[in-house]
Amino acid sequence: MDMSKNVLITGASSGIGEAAARYLTEQHYNVILVARNEERLKKLVNELGENARYYIYDFKNLDRIEDIFIYCKECNLMLDGLVHCAGYSNNLPVKEMEPDILEDMIDVHANSYLMLGKYMARKEYSNRGASIVGMSSMSVIIQKRGMAAYTGAKTLINTYTTIMAKEFVRREIRVNSIMPAYVNTPMLQEMKIEHENAMGMIEPEYVAYLIEYLLSDKAKYITGAHIPMSSGMLGDVRHIKNGG
């Protein structure tokens, strides 16, 4: 358990981000929660108590991301961790794709992650030896119809993870991504998709456990990794059966 570490969590108002916020505060981390929905963030911060605070931000806008870090600095919080869970799904076949849909998807999931990493790497905002965790997806490995924009954005997260891990190593800042299969989140429930996890739907807290491990000193020598949580996703089985 890492006492008194300060961790910034995006997409913290629901799903994996909320689960990470809850688990990290249980483990005595201080959390700064970022999302668009102020009502949900206020409610969550009230539940989590004095170790939590929030900042409202929409990652479709990349121009003011540094303001999040300025806020943390004004609160005397040097960051030890960044967890990027912000994202959404808008499944469309390629023939219905429009440039603005593609741009928003890539900005919210991937380009915002890169810009967050840019400021996280600066000495004025983070401690040496900090950890960055990006939320990717098993869709990078097992592609599905109608998921070109989502899968493209998640693939970029892995690419950015690899490059940031190489560039930030001088400050011993570790950068890793997690690739879950279907997770039991409000986003997935809204999509009304029947999951293909042979071992069952992943509950968000289990992703949070891995997030905490990667943030902690227990993962001191892990960087540049893309870690799958497949839950036996059936796409793997089909691929093998087809001779892949």
Largest sheet: 7 strands, parallel
Q: What is the number of strand segments?
A: 7
CATH architecture: 3-Layer(aba) Sandwich
Percent of residues in β-strands: 15-25%
Overall geometry: globular
Helix-and-strand structural type: alpha/beta
Q: Give the C-alpha Rg.
A: 17 Å
Mean pLDDT, to the nearest integer, reads 90
For the termini, the CA-CA separation is: 41 Å
Number of helices: 8
> How many separate structural domains?
1
Outline the structure in words.
The chain is an alpha/beta fold. It has a single domain (6-241), classed as Rossmann fold. The chain has 8 helices and 7 strands. The chain has helices at residues 15-26, 38-48, 66-74, 99-120, 148-167, 186-191, 204-215, 234-241; strands at 6-10, 30-35, 52-56, 79-84, 126-135, 174-180, 226-229. The chain has a 7-stranded parallel sheet with strand order 3-2-1-4-5-6-7, sandwiched between helices. Helix 4 packs parallel to helix 5. The radius of gyration is 17 Å and the shape is globular. Residues 236-244 have low confidence and may be disordered.
